[in-house]
């Protein structure tokens, strides 16, 4: 039996809300986030033509027979009519109900949230998601996690939505009927990003997730533009789309308006005496531009390709000056790891965007290519395989593109005597990695976005996974063909993940087709028997 077959929580799930029609009143339900032991951030949206003072109420009873916290907050057109308030004076490890009330007496749907524990904590459970592209299908991972009603917290590791125009990703031939986000064009300006959030937040399963669980969320690249970094993005063309700084600011503003998050770029959350969660920012504030393997090889004849790659490796890839988090965040994290261990907390959990374990392209990946495979695909695979042979991994947008920055983080964890558990998204596939004696990584598959099966169609997914594990010493298990989410559980003795794979995303469903579990015991810093 799964460690997560725990039955329902003491508080029954709320009735699902549908929200008011877009255009007036409470249009997008409620949400909560940034939980602490005695406070939580509450969110709603109330559409009106002028700033409107809303009252918020928090109760430990669903009928609101006793109000334990409350106050006033303004919903203003200046912030797209979104409102955020922090409820304080709460008790640790408690479920609470909350709602907003408008001046005319209209009330929002009722939400449920939970404070973090203080002191002795024997178990903490998180539903962990990433990469939810509406066009590719239904958010059945959210639906299943809601129906399970067995988590203390929902965590989203980024790519909450995708910025592309309709028909780009997915192509119209790949898109699921009825799954068309607004606006139809690419999100470039502030109004575009706001409209995309509004569109996604009308999805019933995402709305339900926010209604019944508090969340901790981080942005990745698609909340702004694909493969973004502090000074630009692969999917940003300054000549036609304006200055990157303007677009980045618009993306960050809309995110903070529409999501139940604070304005802090990074933060930590103590889970009693059990763990500290560190929410990291690896995308927009400290990241140097990604390296480009194709550019490094451009114009190089095959006879000199290996020499060019070896020069690229020592000159560029191993450059110690390259940053991913930036010096300020690295110092904050190093100090936080020491403080968490010194306070006696068992686990130091990194809530962050991108895969940390090192992954290398296996030589067998090109076997079975059909005669009509485009030349550029063949060339990229050949370059990737050769790069792996000289010690360069294949995804330079992940931590693999910033090895010196990764080593600084792992060295800080070792110096602090931390027990790292790294939660990662971004890749659309499921991975379990060991991290150089510092801890383990649970890397999650996507909610809907396609994984390796969509790009290596000539290979059986089980062969792809087996070959990747054989070629990558950090990688201990992989699954590269199915969508879903991770159920992560912490106890004083063990940290574990159950990867849950949904049977389909092409229609709404709550059926899990299969699962896989892995865990580490306290102090082992590697995977142990489940």
From TrEMBL:
Instruction: Report domain Phospholipase D N-terminal positions.
Output: 28-115
- Report any Pfam family annotated for this entry: PhoD
Lineage, top-rank taxon, reads Bacteria
SUPFAM superfamilies recorded for this chain?
Metallo-dependent phosphatases
Residues forming the PhoD-like phosphatase metallophosphatase domain are 126-499
Q: What's this protein's name?
A: Alkaline phosphatase
Q: Which organism is it from?
A: Tsuneonella suprasediminis
Source taxonomy lineage? Answer: Bacteria, Pseudomonadati, Pseudomonadota, Alphaproteobacteria, Sphingomonadales
């Amino acid at each position: 039996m799964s460690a997560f077959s725990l039955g329902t929580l003491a508080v029954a799930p709320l009735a699902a809300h549908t929200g008011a029609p877009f255009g007036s009143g409470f249009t997008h339900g409620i949400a909560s986030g940034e939980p602490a032991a005695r406070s939580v951030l509450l969110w709603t949206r109330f559409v009106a033509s002028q700033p409107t003072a809303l009252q918020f109420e928090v109760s430990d009873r669903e009928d609101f027979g006793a109000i334990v916290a409350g106050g006033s907050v303004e919903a203003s057109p200046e912030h797209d009519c979104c409102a955020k308030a922090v409820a304080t004076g709460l008790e640790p490890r408690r479920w609470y109900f909350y709602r907003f009330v408008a001046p005319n007496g209209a009330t929002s749907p009722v939400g449920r949230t939970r404070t973090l524990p203080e002191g002795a904590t024997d178990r903490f459970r998180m539903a962990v998601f990433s990469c939810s592209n509406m066009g590719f299908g239904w958010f059945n991972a959210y639906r299943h996690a809601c129906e399970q009603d067995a988590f203390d917290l929902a965590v989203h590791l980024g790519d909450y939505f995708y910025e592309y125009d309709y028909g780009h990703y997915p192509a119209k031939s790949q898109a699921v009927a009825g799954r068309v986000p607004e606006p139809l064009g690419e999100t470039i300006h502030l109004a575009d990003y706001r409209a995309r959030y509004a569109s996604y937040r009308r999805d019933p399963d995402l709305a339900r997730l926010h209604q019944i669980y508090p969340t901790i969320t981080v942005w990745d690249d698609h909340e702004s533009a694909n493969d973004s970094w502090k000074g630009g993005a692969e999917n940003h063309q300054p000549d036609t789309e304006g200055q990157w700084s303007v677009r980045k600011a618009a993306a960050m503003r809309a995110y903070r308006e529409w999501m139940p998050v604070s304005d802090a770029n990074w933060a930590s959350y103590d889970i009693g005496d059990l763990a500290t969660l560190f929410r990291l920012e690896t995308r927009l504030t400290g990241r140097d531009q990604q390296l480009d393997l194709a550019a490094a090889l451009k114009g190089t004849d095959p006879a000199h390709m290996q020499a060019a790659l070896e020069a690229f490796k020592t000159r560029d890839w191993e450059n110690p000056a390259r940053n991913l988090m930036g010096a300020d965040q690295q110092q904050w994290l190093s100090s936080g790891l020491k403080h968490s261990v010194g306070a006696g907390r068992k686990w130091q959990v990194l809530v962050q965007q991108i895969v940390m374990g090192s992954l290398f392209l296996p030589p067998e990946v090109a076997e079975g290519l059909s005669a009509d495979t485009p030349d550029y695909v063949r060339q990229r695979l050949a370059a990737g395989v050769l790069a792996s042979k000289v010690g360069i991994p294949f995804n330079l947008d992940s931590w693999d593109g910033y090895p010196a920055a990764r080593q600084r983080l792992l060295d800080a964890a070792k110096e602090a005597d931390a027990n790292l558990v790294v939660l990662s998204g971004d890749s659309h596939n499921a991975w379990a990695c060991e991290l150089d004696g510092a801890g383990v990584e649970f890397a999650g598959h996507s909610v809907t976005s396609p994984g390796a099966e969509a790009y290596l169609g000539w290979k059986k997914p089980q062969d792809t996974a087996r070959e990747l594990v054989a070629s990558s010493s950090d990688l201990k298990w992989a699954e590269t063909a199915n969508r879903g989410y991770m159920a992560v559980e912490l106890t004083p003795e063990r940290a574990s993940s159950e990867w849950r794979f949904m049977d389909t995303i092409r229609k709404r469903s709550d059926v899990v087709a299969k699962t896989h579990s892995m865990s580490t015991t306290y102090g082992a810093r590697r995977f142990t028997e489940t």
